[in-house]
Design brief:
Elements lengths: L6 E6 L2 E6 L10 H16 L5 E6 L3 E3 L14 H8 L1 H8 L5 E5 L2 E3 L1 H7 L3 E5 L3 E3 L13 H9 L1 H10 L3 E2 H6 L5 E3 L4 H13 L3 H13 L5 H16 L2 H11 L10
Helix pairs in contact: 1-3, 4-5, 5-6, 9-10
The structure holds ligand T3D.
Length: 260
């Protein structure tokens, strides 16, 4: 029997897939789901067969955000509880050992939109909609959306989505640079796997360090950033993949990267 009840998790042909699996509630978030999501990402970090991760949803939605039928009661310690129960899942995605891609198969609303934003890339089905649903119910965006969304599409567009709660279509999301690609609904997972192929065959450690550098650049001075780049460069040059990459160039062949 599967150890997961709220998600489906598999690793197939070097790509791990986490499928949020509460389709009757459009995959709304619960404590159990977030715990399973975190556990699955930790498994990806440990299982070196996986060289990329897809996050998607079962049924007609990607994720509708917090399950509004199962919320903490008024007066509960929302900050302490959700920082302990939800934040680690989001942070695990942001720090994942391998490149991550949200394959958004339908509506991504509220904290469900935040989940997609925690991934490195988003590919959308034509029917996908992105909704900053929080203001519709009198709340502010959370699970990092106020950090990630303005950085992804700019302050003005982010504020517009957040304050109006208007849905963003897949076509506009692509035009705004939020998503890498829009594909026919039935092709979504195949397209996601195809899109990831260059990264699956890429130098996993260098890719992870590249993401770390881009994240660090949000806070660093230019000098601190240059130093960090060189520290990572020094570390990577001692690894197999950088030696292989340099040798392959000189030998005029394709590199075979294998570091995890
Ligand atoms: O207070 C705190 O806990 C703080 C945490 C905040 C984090 C947040 O994420 S706040 C934002 C929460 N999410 C929302 O406000 C979105 C609520 N959902 C919707 O607005 C709509 O469902 C959608 C726009 C996402 C989709 O609309 P539509 O017409 O395609 O589907 P639907 O008919 O509304 O929903 C289908 C079913 O899913 C329905 O169940 P039923 O009636 O068939 O039994 C609906 O109740 C259920 N569902 C949808 N979203 C949620 C949900 N059930 C629980 N929680 C949901 N978030």
């Amino acid at each position: 029997m599967s150890e997961y009840t709220q998600i489906h998790f598999e690793i197939r042909d070097t790509i791990a897939t986490i499928t949020l699996n509460r389709p009757d509630a459009l995959n709304a978030l619960t404590f159990d789901l977030m715990a399973e999501l975190r556990r699955a990402v930790e498994t990806v970090n440990q299982d070196t067969r996986a060289r990329a991760l897809i996050l998607t949803g079962a049924g007609r939605g990607f994720c509708s955000g917090q399950d509004l039928k199962n919320r903490l009661p008024d007066g509960a310690d929302l900050v302490g509880t959700l920082m302990e129960a939800y934040y680690p899942g989001i942070e695990a995605l942001r720090q994942c050992r391998v490149p991550t891609l949200a394959a958004v198969n339908g509506v991504a609303a509220g904290a469900g939109f935040s989940l997609a934003l925690a991934c490195d890339f988003i590919i959308a089905a034509q029917s996908a909609r992105f909704i900053q649903a929080f203001s519709r119910i009198g709340l502010v965006p959370d699970l990092g959306a106020t950090y990630t969304l303005p950085r992804a599409i700019g302050r003005s567009r982010a504020l517009r989505l957040m304050m109006t709660g208007e849905p963003l279509s897949a076509a506009t999301a692509e035009a705004w640079g939020l998503t890498a690609q829009t594909v026919e609904d039935a092709q979504l997972l195949d397209a996601a796997r195809h899109w990831l192929q260059p990264l699956v065959n890429g130098p996993t450690q260098a890719l992870r360090k590249t993401r770390e550098l881009v994240n660090a650049s949000e806070e660093n001075s230019f000098e601190a950033q240059c130093r960090l780049e060189l520290e990572f460069q020094q570390m990577l040059r001692a690894q197999h993949d950088a030696k292989e990459g340099g040798a392959a160039f000189l030998e005029k062949r394709k590199p075979v990267f294998k570091d995890a």
